[in-house]
Write a structure and sequence with these properties.
By secondary structure, this protein is mostly helical. The chain is built from five helices and no strands.
């Protein structure tokens, strides 16, 4: 995996922190929560995309694709947070409650679990390949 430089690592950490603060603020009904979460998601996703894998190992490439899927889910969770604040999609109340209302939590949880699994497995796979050499 391509290592991030000092600034990119700082942006990745700030993005993750903003995601945590934004989701916590939104749970406690702060109107600025989705904005902080969205900015954090964009920073986090952008820095993870810059962290490329140039190797040929199929397992690491597959795990990298799982990371990218979780990045997309983080962005979907940010969109759903905004949609949860106001029904700007123009859905009727039954469809809004069924598809939008607080479903950002489910998407965020799935994204976090995929992120945790893939990042842990990538670290183990890369360590295993380093020991072989």
């Amino acid at each position: 995996m391509r290592a991030l430089n000092k600034w990119e690592t700082a942006l990745l950490l700030v993005g993750g922190l903003l995601m945590v603060v934004g989701s916590g603020a939104y749970v406690f009904m702060q109107s600025w929560g989705p904005y902080a979460f969205a900015v954090g998601s964009v920073l986090f996703v952008a820095m993870q995309i810059r962290q490329k894998y140039e190797g040929t190992d199929f397992t690491v490439r597959r795990l990298r694709h799982i990371l990218l899927l979780s990045d997309v889910l983080f962005l979907v969770a940010a969109f759903l947070m905004f949609a949860n604040q106001t029904n700007f999609l123009g859905l009727d109340m039954l469809s809004y409650v069924k598809y939008i209302h607080n479903n950002w939590v489910v998407v965020l949880m799935v994204a976090a679990i995929l992120q945790l699994y893939a990042s842990h497995r990538i670290a183990n796979e890369l360590e295993k390949h380093a020991k072989k050499r």
